[in-house]
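Example S7 (structure tokens).
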């Protein structure tokens, strides 16, 4: 990631048992991406917020700036975060 570029706000709605949620968080860690995690299995308010954004209950839901990604999409995450493969 270009050091002069300020990172977009990254939020993930996830559950502890979700394999794709874990893959997304590992991807962020490998690329030094700071993110906010909301455990929607415990946080009912954040679960409703996620549903309001996507109209569905599937996780992970990742919000990067104004963009929303449902599931683990490495190419789309890389594109939105400016990560070179």
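Recovered sequence:
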């Amino acid at each position: 990631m270009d050091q002069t570029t300020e990172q977009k706000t990254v939020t993930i709605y996830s559950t502890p048992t979700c394999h794709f949620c874990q893959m997304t968080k590992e991807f962020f860690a490998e690329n030094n991406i700071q993110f906010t995690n909301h455990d929607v299995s415990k946080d009912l308010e954040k679960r409703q917020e996620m549903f309001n954004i996507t109209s569905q209950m599937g996780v992970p839901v990742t919000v990067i700036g104004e963009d929303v990604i449902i599931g683990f999409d490495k190419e789309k995450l890389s594109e939105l975060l400016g990560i070179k493969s």
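Notes on this example. Residues 10-81 form a domain with the Glutaredoxin fold (CATH 3.40.30.10).
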